[in-house]
Amino acid sequence: MELKIFKIAGAALFILGSGLAYAGGNKEIVQVSSIDMLSRGQYTGVYTIGELHQYGDFGLGTFNGLNGEMVILDNRFYQVTSDGRVHAADDAMTVPFLTTTFFHPGQKFLFKDNADEKGFKDYLKSKFRNRDHFYAIKIKGAFQFVNTRSVPKQQQPYLPLDEVVKDQQQVFNLRNVQGTMLGFWCPAYAAGMNVPGFHFHFLTQNKKAGGHVLNFKTGNVVVEIEEIDQFRALLSK
């Protein structure tokens, strides 16, 4: 396991890497800030979306002031606000937390069985070559239901994330819906930097609803998985 901390162009960088290589070069997750910093209430945007296109075309995060949930799909950034609506995010919007990669899956398969959240996550883990690596995951197709959430924009002084979620989150129950659930698996040792285990956001096919995934049950879906061998965090600007 490789661990590096250094500076590039004024940004403090934290890198974890397995040393793994593949024909196309290293696969990398790039993250703005850390989940620990976000949890403590650091919601002020650091980088603009326009600056972040260079790091990935797939991922999730949030916006300045914790203003809704972010979905990055096919190089487009979407904002799911606390009223449940989806908006195209502008390149000038700033981001306090984001996880992204250029998505080039190494595995793709059809999952035909209905499965609840636990069963489906167990199935995904069975596809991982090494659970100490990072994975980017896209699940597209029919869902019996997806429970999602978003939160309203916060004003300073910011409350910690758990208090915002407890008192202000808006929950949406999406049933018999077509869409894309996407996100990441992060190993346990990444705790503090990112969410250990699975972290998913959702966007309906018609791009009218979505959010942070709380619970779900699948129908027929296509699953794509990319194994990641490097993790890089942009901690400051």
User: Termini distance?
Assistant: 26 Å
Instruction: Give the spatial strand order of the biggest sheet.
Output: 1-2-17-3-10-5-6-7-8
Q: Give the number of DSSP strands.
A: 17
Q: Provide the CATH topology of the largest domain.
A: 60s Ribosomal Protein L30, Chain: A
Q: What is the SS-derived class?
A: mainly beta
Radius of gyration: 17 Å
> CATH superfamily membership of the largest domain, which one?
Hypothetical protein, similar to alpha- acetolactate decarboxylase, domain 2
CATH architecture grouping of the largest domain? 2-Layer Sandwich
Helices and strands in order:
Elements: E1 2-8, E2 11-17, E3 28-32, H1 35-39, E4 47-48, H2 49-52, E5 58-62, E6 69-73, E7 76-80, E8 86-88, E9 94-95, E10 98-101, E11 107-111, E12 115-116, H3 117-126, E13 134-150, H4 161-168, E14 170-186, E15 197-204, E16 210-228, E17 230-234
Parallel strand pairs: 3-17
Antiparallel strand pairs: 1-2, 2-17, 3-10, 4-9, 5-6, 5-10, 6-7, 7-8, 11-16, 12-16, 13-14, 13-16, 14-15, 15-16
